[in-house]
Design a protein that fits this description.
Elements (H helix, E strand, L loop, with lengths): L2 E4 L8 E3 L3 H13 L8 H10 L2 H9 L21 H9 L3 H8 L7 H4 L8 H12 L3 H12 L1 H45 L1 H8 L3 E6 L2 E6 L5 E4 L5 E6 L7 E3 L7 E5 L11 H12 L1 H12 L4 H8 L3 H13 L3 E6 L2 E6 L1 H7 L1 H8 L1
Parallel strand pairs: 1-5, 2-6, 6-8
Antiparallel strand pairs: 1-4, 3-4, 7-8, 9-10
Helix pairs in contact: 1-9, 4-9, 7-8, 8-9, 9-10, 11-14, 13-14
Length: 362
């Protein structure tokens, strides 16, 4: 599964790496709303939340579906701008139908990839938006009702909310991170100019790649969603973020220019595994016998015959289990004379989850 951006025939001049204050504010608001997604930001989220005035905190809660489970596309601008005010001015120029349709994209669903009419003009989408908001509480429901009844007034309310966040905490944060984001964007731009798009994409995230064949060129974003869009006649914009890890956000809905927000530096992703690699690892450890083998292999190196003796199974059975685990990248092997020793790669297993690691080390 992946998000594919068709860039066939798109000149490199229309591929942009640039920081965005609005996108970074959206990432910061998501981190405040879902701090468990961002353990690396624990100190910042705790300090910032504690310093928020109750009135601002209440308003953020009222509208948090725009950056909580999903990130509204209005928070991922495709045009290069220097200031938050300029990006908010761009939003003011967006028509009501497009703005409201994006703002009320409250949860992940199949309508996103196919495109859907705005709830301002479609009764079914209107009911869906109201139902999803009601499931999130009365204040969210009231906010959506207000947006559907008075789009201009609610849009002005959202702009004031974002401006108040800028004044309360984001302006200082942006001054600290914008230098790092600008440096990363310049580095990616230089790679694009001097070494090509494939090199720039690879440096942006190990979860992205460039595919080229006789059918054209595509940027592939490895995600647990399926989507496709085209950049024909448009621009592909890459937005670096210091607040986004581990998220790799992609805007690919019809009618919008493609945008990817990627965390920096790339090495912080820890060599992020592909979705297929994660699937293989989960399947490998799901088998009861392989879980037991993990327990032994986490404690030290063992030969096939030692494992067969320990678990009272045949050596060929052990070999079959080890082959599955090795294919998934969970074990390492080394030869000592005529013996082949196998050991669990604890660093890989740790990235699958601490509960599993603790269970095999318990």
């Amino acid at each position: 599964m992946s998000v594919t951006i068709d860039i066939t025939g798109l000149p490199h001049e229309r591929i942009a790496f640039c920081p965005s204050p609005l996108a970074e504010l959206g990432a910061a608001l998501h981190a405040l709303a879902e701090p468990t997604h961002h353990p690396r930001l624990h100190a910042w989220t705790t300090t910032t939340t504690a310093a928020l005035k109750p009135e601002l905190a209440d308003r953020l809660h009222e509208a948090d579906f725009m950056w909580n489970s999903t990130r509204s596309d209005i928070l991922l601008p495709s045009q290069r701008r220097e200031t938050l005010a300029e990006e908010l001015d761009d939003l003011d120029r967006m028509d009501d139908e497009k703005f409201v349709g994006s703002a009320l994209e409250i949860s992940c669903n199949s309508n996103y990839a196919k495109g859907a009419p705005s709830p301002l003009v479609d009764a079914r989408m209107r009911r869906r938006a109201l139902d999803l908001a009601a499931a999130r509480g009365p204040r969210q429901a009231a906010f959506v009702e207000r947006m559907l009844a008075d789009p201009p007034g609610t849009r002005a309310w959202i702009r004031r909310l974002l401006e108040d966040c800028d004044e309360a905490f984001f302006a200082d944060t942006w001054r600290r991170v914008r230098i790092q984001l600008a440096a990363d964007a310049r580095h990616k731009t230089e790679l694009l100019r001097h070494k090509g798009l494939a090199e720039a994409i690879a440096d942006t995230s190990p979860a992205m790649s460039l595919e080229e064949d006789e059918q054209g060129s595509r940027i592939v974003v490895d995600k647990l969603v399926q989507g496709r869009t085209s950049a024909e006649g448009a621009t592909v914009t890459f937005l670096p973020t210091a607040f986004g890890w581990p998220h790799l956000s992609a805007l690919y809905t019809p009618g919008w220019q493609p945008v990817v927000q990627y965390p920096i530096p790339a090495r912080d992703l820890g060599g992020a595994a592909s979705v297929e690699a994660v699937k293989l690892r989960l399947e490998a450890v799901a088998h009861p016998m392989r879980m037991r083998l993990c327990r032994s292999l986490a404690r030290g190196s063992s030969t096939t015959s030692e494992l067969a003796d320990a678990y009272n199974i045949t050596a060929p059975e052990v070999s079959r289990h080890l082959a599955v685990m090795k294919k998934a990248g969970l074990i390492t092997t080394q030869r000592r004379g005529r013996y082949v020793l196998h050991q669990l790669d604890v660093s890989v297993v740790a990235r699958l989850g601490s509960d599993f690691l603790e269970s095999v080390l318990r």
